[in-house]
Amino acid sequence: MSLELGFETIGNATLIVHDGKPVLATDPWLSGTAYFGSWVLSHAVPPEQMANVEAADAIWISHGHPDHLSFETLKKLKDKEILLPDHVGGRIRDYLVSDGYKVRVLKDREWHQISARVRICSIADCNQDAVLLVDIDGTLVANLNDASERGWENFVKHAVKKSDVSFMLALSGFGDADMINFFEPNGDRILPYAAKQLPPGKAIARRIESFGMKYFVPFASLHQYNRADSFWANDYITGPEAHKLGFASETAEIVGPFIKYDCLSRNVELLEPLPNPLVANDPKDFGDDWSQQLTDVDVDEARKYFARIETLRDVVDVIVVRVGGVEHEFPVGSGNNRGVTFEVPRHSFMEAVKWEVFDDLMIGNFTKTTVTGDWTTDEFGTKFTPLVGKYADNGYARTHAEIRKYMAEYRRRAPLDTARSLLAHKNTSFLNSVARTMYSKIAPGSLLHRIGRSSYRKLRGR
């Protein structure tokens, strides 16, 4: 039954908003694969919701990762108006305009009326992520997808206070929705954080309560692995019901990831899409032959790519790329005593270099990553990954001067909120460092360990 006024959630991060008819759909990845064939939807999009996306007046795209910006799907929606967050650099805007799409960039923190009873507000952040607030005649849907709090949280909380009913749509799970294919220098795989399978519900409850929202919908978390060389990561994906594990709250509720909500009756209906089968496809089906080696031209292109990102010189000494059993060294900085090795098939590596989507290569989790020297995999994720995948590839900020200008623009848009966010992140980094040092010297499970853990959580506001 069609909705008069309300919304649906389906696929990975697709929100469909109705006001008499479908008026908006977000991040439509309706079929096919992402990350060089590595990801596929965990559940098939039903015909009704597929038709609703195709009937929507406008499409909002949060950011450039292929499970949110699916060109295969977008080709079928070329008659739609594409709404974009105001990302610094404007890469997605430039590409879609050049390809003939009708594009409108939404100014940050401004409300835009898109139908009689629906208005939206988009906020881009310095991590090249974005959130979308959707006000459906008093019902607030906060589509946070996989964005982390970076200066927009107070704005969202203020909107929540003005709403009658509120929903948070956000990434949750055990932690596989990122790069987790790390190895020790001796070749042993490093067990990912997701292997702990800590109950996601505890973190969900803390987050939704901090925003004062009523309902949580698992979002941007509905994928599985589709290549034989990334199939191992299916051990760490989060099933639809697993998001509820450990959830306890007196003020909020968690509902399923696939729902239909009627704003007039305030009724939640659970959708039941069919699960997609787990299939380990041959990497060659996606152009990847692991025995294929780089050509001299390939090596030169890769060298130019890494050299353009001048900010890497402060972070890593040497990048090693192992393709077809042959290692290629790309000296970057000096004196850091840090290195990283990527073992990767030629086709995907060169596509990532050509299209400047290095993040996609790592998130696919078929690329084997080994960090060496004076840093950890966590530090690699906070130092190397943003400089390459966020600022350089997507934000066009590759030098120190460009980074300063890039960050200054986000500060200009919301000076106070940005300052608060930066302070919170710095304090978190400091607290994490202190906690790691303390815990390494205290026996796990001891009274002192439990007191320290409790104090740490209080300091972080959790």
Essential attributes:
single chain, Nonspecific Lipid-transfer Protein, Chain A, 23% strand, Metallo-beta-lactamase, Chain A, seven-stranded mixed sheet, 462 residues, disordered C terminus, 30% helix, eight-stranded mixed sheet, globular, alpha/beta
Describe this structure in words.
Strands 8-7-6-3-2-1-18-19 form an 8-stranded mixed sheet, with helices on one face. Strands 9-10-11-12-13-15-17 form a 7-stranded mixed sheet, covered by helices on one side. The longest helix has 25 residues, at 415-439. The chain is α/β, with parallel strands linked by helices and 462 residues long. It is globular and about 60 Å long. It has 12 helices and 23 strands. The protein has 3 domains: 5-280, Ribonuclease Z/Hydroxyacylglutathione hydrolase-like (Metallo-beta-lactamase, Chain A); 287-404, Nonspecific Lipid-transfer Protein, Chain A, CATH 3.30.1050; 414-459, no CATH class. Helix 10 (400-413) packs across helix 11 (415-439). The model is unreliable at 427-441 and 453-462 (pLDDT under 50). 30% of the residues lie in helices and 23% in strands.
